[in-house]
Amino acid sequence: MRFTDTLPIPSAEALAHSEQLKAIIGQEIQAQGGQISFHHFMQMALYEPGLGYYVAGLHKIGATGDFVTAPEISALFSQCIAHQCAQILSELPNSSILELGAGSGRMAAEILLGLEQQECLPEHYFILDLSPDLQTRQWTTINQYAPHLLHKVQWLTSLPTEPLRGVMLGNEVLDAMPVELFTVNKQGIVSVQVSVADDQFAFTDGQTKAAEYIQTLLPTDLALPYTSEFNPALAAWIHSLAEHLETGAILLIDYGYERSDYYHPERSQGTLLCHYQHRVHNHPLIYPGLQDLTASVDFTAVAEAGVDAGLQLAGYTTQAAFLAGCGLEDLFLAALNQQPQASYQLAQQIRTLSLPSEMGERFKVIALTKEFTTPLLGFRLGDRQHRL
Ligand SMILES: C[S@@+](CC[C@H](N)C(=O)[O-])C[C@H]1O[C@@H](n2cnc3c(N)ncnc32)[C@H](O)[C@@H]1O
């Protein structure tokens, strides 16, 4: 992934798609009196029906897309998650897994295969994604890697009506949720809005109703101006997961920080980033519908929302420590035994997943549990709850 200011030129077809979405967002801005919140803009850019980045038929995830996620990098990642799931499922009879935002379906396929090997298959493997387009891709992937387990998979359009006993899982889902942008300047806290100027989207200042909440996030020694963001839907989302969990664990994996690090005085430009064809840049208003917009996760906010929803904070650690706790080394050795010719690729995968300079430290794992008190495997080699 390269950080750059020069981007590949989209094809004529892609540009036409983006222009269509741009026109719809422009109409919305006009209907709202000339500006909309950045949150509203990001919601439309990513999820506008038929046109948004995640719901239109572009190939986003993987080598030919815009970014690569851990399940696409290595099956070992999902096999570790399968170990964690097995520990929970084996204690809860008739339990299931619900995967949120399942992307290409690669993690679902590998988890099912891993659980089959451990003779611990779930009753159901539910998938809930905001993108109906990805459902077909998920079906195809699972049919390719684990066709005999396809009958376990059920696609949902909303959280299950029957409360779930088992595991709710999400890899890189939180970072794909729209955020509210704000700037602290000498006048106080202003909301970053999106308007139209010279036929282009532009940032403008607006009022925020969340100033009091934002104040609680920030340290007092900020050099101004200071721009950052927060996810206004996070607490409600965690609450609804908690309501739909009868017993078991919610496991969320994503890039992000504890609050003191997230809103660090030196992080004065926030964490919002754009991904377009394996380039990372910071121009969120261009190419709506063609590029991914993403912000890091405030894991303190996740923990607070969970505890507020009656869940227990059962663990928080780095991806490297979590995978090691779930048996990454043994899984690596088993894979080496099976495919000695792939030793270089496997070693490379381990490095990408675990090195601090790669995904190892930037990605974190948090677990929130309900009526499940057994210490979780993934946190046995280190738990950073105290930092939240
Ligand atoms: C960055 S992709 C990650 C996909 C996959 N988990 C992976 O690791 O490759 C984020 C996914 O989360 C989905 N998503 C975003 N918000 C969601 C929500 N509230 N519920 C379920 N899925 C959501 C998006 O549609 C998208 O498929």
Overall structural domain count: 2
Order of helices and strands: EHEHHHEHEHEEEEEHEHEHEEEEHEHHHE
Q: Which ions and ligands are bound to the chains?
A: S-adenosylmethionine
Number of strands: 17
Overall spatial form: globular
Largest sheet: 8 strands, mixed
CATH class of the largest domain: Alpha Beta
Distance between the termini: 29 Å
Structural class from helices and strands?
alpha/beta
The radius of gyration over CA amounts to 21 Å
- Which CATH architecture of the largest domain would you pick? 3-Layer(aba) Sandwich
Q: Per DSSP, what share of the residues sits in E-state strands of 2 or more residues?
A: 15-25%
Number of DSSP helical runs: 13
The CATH topology of the largest domain corresponds to Rossmann fold
Task: Describe this structure as you would to a colleague.
With 388 residues, the chain is α/β, with parallel strands linked by helices. The chain folds into 2 domains: 2-44 and 178-233 and 265-294, no CATH class; 70-176 and 235-259 and 301-382, Rossmann fold, CATH 3.40.50. Helices cover 35% and strands 24% of the residues. The chain has 13 helices and 17 strands. The strands form 3 sheets. Strands 3, 4, 5, 6, 11, 15, 16 and 17 form an 8-stranded mixed sheet that branches. Strands 2, 7, 8, 9 and 10 form a 5-stranded antiparallel sheet that branches. Helix 5 (106-117) packs parallel to helix 6 (132-145) and helix 8 crosses helix 10. The longest helix is centred in the N-terminal third of the chain and has 20 residues, at 12-31. It is globular and about 60 Å long. The relative contact order is 0.15. The structure holds S-adenosylmethionine.
